[in-house]
Specification:
Elements: E1 2-7, H1 13-32, H2 38-53, E2 55-64, E3 67-74, H3 84-100, E4 105-112, H4 123-133, E5 139-146, E6 163-167, E7 174-181, E8 186-188, E9 192-203, E10 212-219, E11 225-230, E12 234-240, E13 245-252, E14 266-274, E15 278-284, H5 289-300, E16 304-310, H6 333-339, E17 346-350, H7 360-371, E18 375-379, E19 401-408, E20 415-416, H8 418-422, E21 441-446, E22 450-454, E23 460-467, E24 470-475, H9 481-484, H10 493-504, E25 514-520, E26 523-529, E27 538-541, E28 547-550, E29 553-556, E30 559-565, E31 570-576, E32 579-585, H11 604-607, E33 614-616, E34 623-626, E35 634-635, E36 638-641, E37 647-656, H12 660-679
Helix pairs in contact: 1-2, 2-12, 6-7
Length: 681
């Protein structure tokens, strides 16, 4: 129970002051005129003014509130290194027991784990949330058990009490890490791209550690290449991507004896390999509307370098015009088909027929070019069905179909076959089944490959095949240009021809037999494309060597998918049948392992102004004592808490000190006494 004298004025304070001034003026006037009752009149005015001031005696029934101590336990990934978990848990339990034994004190234990994504240790965010849940007037102190590697210090709140850091780790800890900087998202296939990297030692590095370290470089999980590099220097390293699409490049440094962790000895970089320029050779046997279609398609793609020849004057043409008067360019057959054939990514024969322009040895070299990894597309016209057909050359062994010598001249609609519905070249083309009709088809008999589109009475129209390391396509019609002209509504001419050309140039997104994964955080979507109607389960090899087997579900014709939550950061290997893939989950260098040596340097700007302290757990726990607010809160072997003296008011009683009857009696008595005194004179 505590009592206090309070004033509760019955009139506004300015009015009360004005009345007091008037009363003083009146008393001064009475004194100046020599009235003997001025003192009694002054007492009467004082009684009235006191009554108007409303004096009250307030008695409160108070219940003291306990002080609150916040203890933040850092359980982020870096706190899991070495013996830090046991060190921190043991210290937290001992401090909790000590604080709970203190009178009138409560403890709040707050656990901090890794932030979402790669945000690191969000200790300040957890502290802010805890302060928002507790009355700040009751906070007596804050204890943080951490390695000091906090990643959100810019969000530190205003602290109402001393904050002490109890630092985990050992003073002799040391660690080696690999840092990869300036890694581009894209690189040109076959050309070196320069990455900046650094091998760095931190902490109490043992004297036996040398100034050189071995660096291992592996692409897509293949055999590593080994280099010996200096430690502590920024280095520029050229890396060459071997294929298009995603390339997973893994850099790693072997674990050194005694280092704190190997989690930062590896960095994963995922770069997309792109071709600088796709070189295409287009040979048109004669001018026709479809030739312009091919030319426009290839010229519209800025990534394609097109070399186009149209044979306007065949050797058999004899019109008597002198050669020196012709403005035509001679066809550089030897240069193109012998010397520089491997410079091209794709060769297109558009309505080409044997005319003696390309000798058999040149076409034989084209067949060898395909087996070595090149691509040939034959857009067949009526000449494909004749004795002069390009099929009747050394190129025939690589073509997927042979002509029957029949040219079908009738209207028909191109249809996507069952295999075509599963192949990325023809899958999900807009308006399938409602396209405009074509008017000519060359009848062929399939010998290999896959039929993606059919024409008259289901006859093969578009065939694709893999030959050796290369690819071949045959389009058994020269009327694809009708779609471009909008005949009977047209069709997806440009999209079909674009997909066809890019499939032949081995663009990864158009592979019909492929396995890959797309990552979103720690979740990967595993995708399997195949022409088969069923696939087996995918085997996932985790970074720690363990395996998981996951069934796949068909989500569209030829496309199977599965979702997988990766339990850790690192390189995952995928396998289904004869298809293999790799993918990296998580950042190239997880933020929690960028710096692993325990340090107080980051938190000192927050702790020092509060006169708080930093204590190493390996040196033992400090004792706890009370300190007054504003005094030093830490010393040798002790830390201080500030008692707050907070309380809860349960009941309030007020007793007026100037009741009306007493005021009336006193004021009247003083006024009458003053009047009587003055009347005697």
């Amino acid at each position: 129970m505590t009592g206090n004298l309070l004033l509760d004025p019955l009139v506004p304070l300015p009015l009360l002051i004005a009345l007091a001034v008037l009363s003083l003026a009146g008393i001064a006037l009475a004194l100046w005129r020599g009235l003997s009752g001025w003192a009694l009149r002054g007492l009467a005015a004082l009684v009235l003014l006191a009554a108007l001031a409303g004096p009250v005696w307030q008695v409160e029934d108070r219940a003291p509130l306990s002080d609150i101590v916040l203890m933040i336990e850092d359980q982020s990934a870096s706190q899991g290194l070495s013996d830090r978990p046991d060190q921190t848990t043991s210290a937290a339990d001992q401090l909790a027991a000590s604080i709970e034994n203190r009178p009138n004190t409560e403890l709040r234990r707050i656990i901090v784990s890794d932030g979402e994504g790669d945000t690191g240790t969000q200790l300040m965010a957890a502290l802010t949330e805890a302060l928002n849940e507790e009355p700040r007037a009751r906070i007596a102190g804050i204890l943080a058990l951490s390695d000091g590697q906090v990643h959100d210090l810019d969000r530190a709140p205003a602290l109402p009490a001393p904050m002490h850091l109890l630092l985990s780790g050992r003073s002799d800890d040391w660690d080696r890490r690999l840092i990869v900087r300036d890694a581009p998202a894209f690189a040109i296939i076959g050309e070196p791209v320069t990455l900046s990297l650094r091998i760095e030692d931190a902490g109490a590095v043992p004297a036996g550690q040398g100034a050189l370290a071995e660096l291992q470089i592996s692409v897509d999980g293949g055999p590593p290449e080994r280099l010996t590099l200096p430690v502590g220097q920024d280095l520029e390293l050229p890396v060459t991507l071997p294929h298009g699409g995603r390339n997973v490049v893994q850099f790693s440094v072997p674990v050194a004896e005694g280092e704190l962790t190997d989690r930062n000895n590896t960095a994963l970089i995922q770069m997309n390999g792109v071709r600088d320029r796709l070189r295409v050779l287009l040979v048109s046997g004669q001018p026709h509307p479809g030739g312009r279609t091919w030319r426009n398609l290839l010229k519209s793609d800025s990534s394609v370098d097109l070399v186009h020849f149209t044979i306007l004057r065949p050797p058999e043409k004899q019109d008597g015009v002198p050669v020196d008067e012709l403005s035509l360019i001679a066809f550089p057959t030897r240069e193109l088909f012998l010397e520089k054939i491997d410079d091209f990514d794709l060769i297109i024969f558009d309505r080409y027929k044997r005319r003696g322009i390309l000798p058999a040895i040149y076409l034989d070299n084209v067949a060898n070019y395909v087996n070595r990894g090149g691509a040939v597309l034959v857009a067949a016209g009526p000449d494909f069905a004749t004795a002069d057909s390009i099929y009747r050359t050394p190129l025939s062994p690589v073509l997927p179909a042979r002509p029957t010598a029949r040219v079908i001249e009738e209207a028909y609609r191109a249809q996507v076959t069952e295999e075509g519905a599963r192949h990325p070249v023809t899958a999900e083309l807009d308006g399938a089944g409602e396209w405009g009709r074509w008017l000519r088809q060359i009848e062929v008999t399939q010998e290999s490959g896959h039929v993606l589109m059919s024409g008259v009475e289901g006859r093969p129209l578009l065939l694709l095949d893999r030959v050796g390391e290369g690819r071949v396509a045959l389009l058994a019609s020269d009327h694809a240009w009708l779609w471009g002209r909008g005949y009977e509504g047209g069709g997806p001419q440009l999209e079909l021809l674009r997909r066809l050309a890019h499939w032949m140039m081995k663009e990864p997104e158009l592979e019909e037999d492929a396995l890959w994964a797309e990552a979103q955080g720690q979740t990967m979507r595993i995708i399997r494309r195949t022409l088969e109607t069923e696939v087996g389960s995918v085997t996932i090899t985790r970074p720690d060597g363990g395996e998981d087997v996951l069934p796949m579900e068909e989500v569209s014709p030829g496309r199977f998918e599965a979702l997988y939550q990766g339990p850790e950061i690192g390189l995952y290997r995928l396998r289904e049948g004869d298809q293999n893939a790799v993918i990296g989950l998580g950042p190239a260098a997880p933020r929690e392992f960028e710096a692993t040596i325990a340090t107080a340097a980051l938190m000192e700007p927050l702790i020092t102004p509060l006169k708080s302290g930093v204590f190493r757990l390996e040196d033992g726990l400090p004792t706890i004592r009370n300190v007054r607010e504003g005094r030093p809160a830490a010393g040798r072997g002790w830390l201080g808490l500030t008692p707050r003296g907070a309380y809860e008011t349960r009941d309030v009683r007020r007793t007026p000190l100037a009741p009306a009857w007493l005021v009336l009696l006193l004021a009247s008595g003083f006024v009458i006494a003053g009047w009587l005194r003055e009347g005697r004179r």
